[in-house]
Amino acid sequence: NKPHPHNGILETFKRQPPEQAFGNLVSDEVAAQLQADKPFVSKVDLPNGFRQTIAVRNIAAPANLVFDQITELSSYPEKIDGVMLVETYRDERGLNGLRTMCAQYKVRFATIVAESFVLHEVDPFIRCMTFRLDYTRRSDVSDQVGYWFVESLGHDRSRVYYAAVCTVPAWVPGFAVSGIYELVAKRSTGWVDVESRKAYAERAQVRSLRGLVSQASKLTSLHGL
Questions:
Q1: Residue 182, CB half-sphere, CA atoms under 13 Å: how many?
Q2: Which terminus of the chain has fewer Cβ atoms in its 10 Å neighbourhood, N or C?
């Protein structure tokens, strides 16, 4: 694979809490919307065909479990509609705990398939993952940067923040561009909510079964059976 035509047009996101990244993003009005289980989504058109999407959503699952859904890249094709392939070709952990992953993506939008090579940097201590193109390989998109952050709201409640700036490939027909951007915005945090709730329910079921087995074992021991 040839290198990308440039080494980055967009400024990459920093691994930091959303208050530092975006300021007062969650106003009282937005907070009420999130409490009603309605996601907040903001879309802004930028120069040169780029679009910024920011999404925030409350999820009824623990923060660590939610963050696991986001960082398990290999499971994306099973979880996200339109993702055909995610193949990791680099996975390293630094002494500071930072994890660096590079992966090849193939994503379908209607009849259009785009390939990209993405570098992810994961900070598990603050539950933040940023991503950008791997410029050593050529992607179909001109440039792309993004950000994930999961905030704990208590034992079984979380708030997930997502932000991305990207552009569709230049060869995509103009009439399809707006539809693709709308689809990206809808997919941003919805799949995380679905998969996190599912994983949390499965975990609760396993714990319940273990509790029943433990209780039965104690009763058996008590009666000398």
A1: 6
A2: C
pLDDT the model gives residue 112: 82
Does residue 30 fall inside a structural domain?
yes
Question: Whole domain around residue 166: which residue ranges?
Answer: 18-222
The mean pLDDT of 156-169, rounded to a whole number, is: 90
Q: 38-56, pLDDT tens digit by residue?
A: 999 998 888 877 889 999 9
Burial zone of 45 (CB within 10 Å; 0-12 exposed, 13-18 middle, 19+ buried) = exposed
Of 44, 71, 69, 66, nearest to 55 by C-alpha is: 44
Residue 8 lies in a domain: no
118 falls within a domain: yes
The pLDDT tens digits for 8-43 are: 999 999 999 999 999 989 999 999 999 999 999 998
- Buried b / exposed e along 192-205 (16+ C-beta atoms within 10 A): bbebbeebbeeeee
The burial of 67, by beta-carbon neighbours within 10 Å (0-12 exposed, 13-18 middle, 19 or more buried), is given as buried
Number of domains in the chain: 1
* Greater model confidence, 176 or 114: 114
- CATH classification at residue 30: 3.30.530.20
| Amino acid, single-letter form, for residue 27 | S
Which tokens hold the place of 183? 């689809």
Residue 37, domain member (yes or no): yes
34, 37, 67, 134, 210 from 40: Cα distances, Å: 7, 10, 19, 29, 38
Q: What angle (nearest 5°) sits at the alpha carbon of residue 107, between those of residues 105 and 109? A: 165
